[in-house]
Amino acid sequence: MTETWRGIRGFPGYQISSRARVRRISSGRILKPWLIDGLYEIIGLFKHGKCFKKSVARLRAIAFDGLRKDQRIDHRRGIGVSQAEIIRSARGRIPHSSKYKGVSKRGGHWHSYIHINGRSRLLGVFRTERQAGLAYDRAARKAWGAGKCFENFPASYRNSMMNH
Predict the structure, then answer these.
(1) What per-residue confidence (pLDDT) applies to 31?
(2) Per-residue pLDDT tens digits for 11-32
(3) Quick one: CA dihedral 8, 85, 93, 37, positive or negative?
(4) Which range is least confidently modeled, 69-83, 84-98, 100-114, 119-133?
(5) Which single residue of 76, 101, 123, 139 has CA 20 to 30 Å from 153?
(6) Is pLDDT at 158 greater than 70 in this prediction?
(7) The CATH number of the domain covering residues in 5-67
(8) Which residues partner with 42 through β-bridges?
């Protein structure tokens, strides 16, 4: 794979490569990143005499993948995705009683919970897992707004279900 270099938005004196290496344009020197928590590479970029610490993965995703401000870096795959996609991709790795967020099974019934401002609130007890998941979605949309929260059943899915 050929290494391609692109400018870093907001830092005209630096470039990032397709292999996630950062260099200073004036000297051509490759900068050495440091690790946070042994996982995340951070680099210090200077502008107007101030040092700005930036994630190398995020800089690469912005330059080469067109990462939007509302997206996060999925470090397992090294790409930019929404927060909801990160949660969905983690499913199956952690054993839960339900496949839906905010839902758990207790004694043959499905309980739906939501956590807001550090407090857990019971939304109800339901016969089916799907009903409990829908209750979580309604509460999440009310608390944080449609499209701004994780939903078990995104709007496109709900609309297709209503048409059938």
Answers:
(1) 94
(2) 999 999 988 899 999 999 999 9
(3) positive
(4) 84-98
(5) 76
(6) no
(7) 3.90.75.20
(8) 34, 55
3-state secondary structure 144-156: HCCCCCCCCCCHH
11-45 CB burial, b ≥16 within 10 A, e <16: beebbbbeebbbbeeeeeeeeebeeeeeeebebeb
Check whether 94 has a pLDDT greater than 90: no
SS3 2: coil
DSSP string spanning 77-106?
TTEEE-HHHHHHHHBTTB--S-SSTTEEEE
Show the tokens assigned to 44.
Answer: 């210090």
Angstrom distances, CA of residue 40 to CA of 16, 33, 76, 159: 16, 9, 11, 39
Domain range list for the chain = 5-67, 97-163
Tell me the per-residue pLDDT of 48-88, one tens digit each, with 9 for 90 and over: 999 999 988 888 888 887 777 777 776 666 667 776 676 66
